[in-house]
Amino acid sequence: MNAGTRKVALVTGASTGIGLATARRLLESGVFVVLTARDSSLERLQCADFLQDPSQYWLRPLDVRNALERRELLDEIEKQLGRLDYLINNAGVIYRTPIEYAYEFESKEQMLVNFHAPLEMVKVCLPLLRKSGGGRVIMVSSAAGFFSVPTMGLYAASKHALEGASEALYHELKPWNIGVTLIEPGFIASEAYMNCRLGLAFDKQNNPTAQNYRLQSRVISTLVDRAIHMTTSTPDQVAGAICRALNMKRPPLRLQVTLDAQVFAFLKRFLPSRAFDRLIGFCLDRIRYQLEHADFEVPTPAQV
Ligand SMILES: NC(=O)c1ccc[n+]([C@@H]2O[C@H](COP(=O)([O-])OP(=O)(O)OC[C@H]3O[C@@H](n4cnc5c(N)ncnc54)[C@H](OP(=O)(O)O)[C@@H]3O)[C@@H](O)[C@H]2O)c1
């Protein structure tokens, strides 16, 4: 089967959330979509109601960390479809742990999935994107790509790294008219936060130092709970923004796609750095104060 003049998109982490919503939007707009997910998650895709006509899409196993799977998939796309227009680097994981308790393997895994793998995906896709004449690369980043809060250091580091590399790519790929856009969502009503991986060492410790960190962690959980409760942003909205970016003649490097991300980006840009850091600190201290004065008990590891 050759895709002919139809555009072809490859979406990573399409089993749920933003990846799934993006695949749906792309399919609805007539793009041939290669939905990829880890082998163990592919089954979840079988229940997606919009996947009805298998001539419009492929479902393929792809653990983004696996070089062989990346290579084999691109070979198959080249042989069978003959083109690739859009790469949506969406797959991601979130580790939650204070830096002091982060195991080295955890920070490596965080960087592997959120930073190294998307770059390797770009490398393996570039020959086909170039051949298709002006492809587009979407890097799903986060507001954590430009600021950080306690216990989210590993995740923020991975997204900061992704932003730095993508900025270089944006300029490097201009001669081939390949656009690179960082999508920066803030809080979204999705499963992502529920899927957080709690640092193993942090999870086990119950000494005074860990308890202090646990309180910080509870502050962040409270902040996230409130934000997710208040937000009207959904994975589908982010998917809409991704599709708009794909259709732009000259897509921007960065797109903040939720109101909170836009506010934080504005403050980060226009406040002196010291004032921005103090503002974040003030907000966190306020939540901590509220928790401490609400008959709050320092949570046990299982409650963080
Ligand atoms: N939701 C938010 O509030 C938010 C905010 C800012 C940025 N983001 C970013 O948006 C992207 C998507 O997140 P989401 O909200 O849709 O979260 P999600 O519902 O947790 O989805 C994450 C996706 O990544 C996949 N994944 C994880 N590790 C993978 C691997 N090694 N290989 C292939 N796929 C892998 C997951 O697959 P499995 O089903 O196999 O686990 C899942 O499909 C992430 O990059 C995230 O950092 C999310």
Task: Provide a compact summary of the structure.
This protein is of the alpha/beta class and 304 residues long. The protein has ten helices and nine strands.
In words, what does this structure look like?
- The protein is built from 10 helices and 9 strands.
- By secondary structure, the protein is of the alpha/beta class.
- The chain has a single domain (8-199, 232-258), classed as 3-Layer(aba) Sandwich (Rossmann fold), CATH 3.40.50.
- Strands 3-2-1-4-6-7-9 form a 7-stranded parallel β-sheet, with helices on both faces.
- β1 (8-11), α1 and β2 form a beta-alpha-beta unit.
- The termini are far apart.
- The model has no long low-confidence stretch (mean pLDDT 93).
- The structure holds NADP nicotinamide-adenine-dinucleotide phosphate.
- NADP nicotinamide-adenine-dinucleotide phosphate binds at residues 12-13, 15-19, 37-38, 41, 63-65, 90-93, 113, 140, 142, 185, 187-188, 190-192, 195, 235.
CATH architecture: 3-Layer(aba) Sandwich
Which parts are unreliable, with pLDDT below 50 for 5 consecutive residues or more?
Answer: none
Helix content: 40-55%
Side by side, the strands of the main sheet go 3-2-1-4-6-7-9
Per the CATH scheme, the topology name is Rossmann fold
CATH superfamily (homologous) name: NAD(P)-binding Rossmann-like Domain
